[in-house]
Amino acid sequence: MSNQYPVTGAGLGLRRSLLEALSSADDAVDFMEVAPENWINVGGRFGRQLREYTERYPLLCHGLSLSIAGPTELDWELLKNIKQFMRDHQVRCYSEHLSYCSDDGHLYDLLPIPFTGDAVRFVANRIRQVQDFLEQPMAIENISYYAAPQQELSEIDFLCAVLEEADCNLLLDVNNIYVNSVNHGYEAENFLAALPGDRIAYGHIAGHFVEAEDLLVDTHGADVIDPVWRLLDSAYQHFGVFPTLLERDFNLPPVDELLAEVSTIKTRQKDVINTSPTNADSDQCELQT
């Protein structure tokens, strides 16, 4: 699947608590992202405020509860609502996590899939079903995980195989690569270099919590740290500059501090563009044996 970025520049996740504070953000933010589950069928004041934002900024949707790798039937009612929401707000791209979060009911966590060939085929088939229903490509996000049950494939082999089998795009979460590299003892740069750059739709960057020297927790509740910024620079060097969004879900700082991190994304994008004339090196998946 050839990739064309749905947006450009640097974005920010739109949270209800930020609706007032971001009203004067203007060109400090190039695009925004929402979890559709938090906004579907929302009317009244919040609905009007959301409409004001979607008329000002390109919008992306990042799903929370589709449970794309879950054992139960896909939630077609949710997908119908997402499809309508995307039409109503001219959403440029829909993404979900490469994980599951439900069984008989919602588990309220993003749980790891077994890295097996059977799981590749299972989840790829479900992704294809969603893409067919939405009538557009979707992007799948590499997640942070803290256990790897029944592992037959490495994380990079598994991710690349799913992307290829499903013929879908990648939402590249740079912080998740860094977190997993510390927790599971691999080189983040090697993981990054093995990704299929031509499948990147856009990227995420975020902060995390240091539980221990060898245990990081992906929280989206802290500032981005320098090693993660440097990994983002590396991603731009490998694949060219791609649209990148700052995720911050709690412990929200004053909006000026949030916008300063968005500005840092823009600065790093410009630095790469200015120093890399060709600005392209779309490495393909090289599965490790």
Structural summary, described in words:
The protein is an alpha/beta fold. It has a single domain, classed as Divalent-metal-dependent TIM barrel enzymes (TIM Barrel), CATH 3.20.20. The protein has 8 helices and 12 strands. An 8-stranded parallel beta barrel has the order 1-2-3-4-7-8-9-12, surrounded by 4 helices. It has a two-stranded antiparallel ribbon with strand order 5-6. Strands 10-11 form a two-stranded antiparallel ribbon. β7, α4 and β8 form a beta-alpha-beta unit. α3 runs parallel beside α4. The C terminus is likely disordered.
Quick synopsis:
The chain has 289 residues and is α/β, with parallel strands linked by helices.
- Rounded radius of gyration (Å): 18 Å
Largest sheet: 8 strands, parallel, barrel
Number of separate structural domains? 1
Q: Percentage of helical residues? A: 25-40%
Placed side by side, the strands forming the largest sheet appear as 1-2-3-4-7-8-9-12
Runs in which pLDDT lies below 50 for 5 or more consecutive residues are 279-289
Assigned CATH architecture: Alpha-Beta Barrel
Break the fold down into its secondary structure elements and pairings.
Layout (H helix, E strand, L loop, with lengths): L9 E4 L17 E4 L9 H13 L2 E4 L13 H13 L5 E4 L2 E3 L3 E6 L5 H18 L3 E4 L13 H12 L2 E5 H11 L3 H6 L6 E6 L3 E4 L2 E3 L8 H14 L4 E3 L8 H21 L14
Parallel strand pairs: 1-2, 1-12, 2-3, 3-4, 4-7, 7-8, 8-9, 9-12
Antiparallel strand pairs: 5-6, 10-11
Helix pairs in contact: 3-4
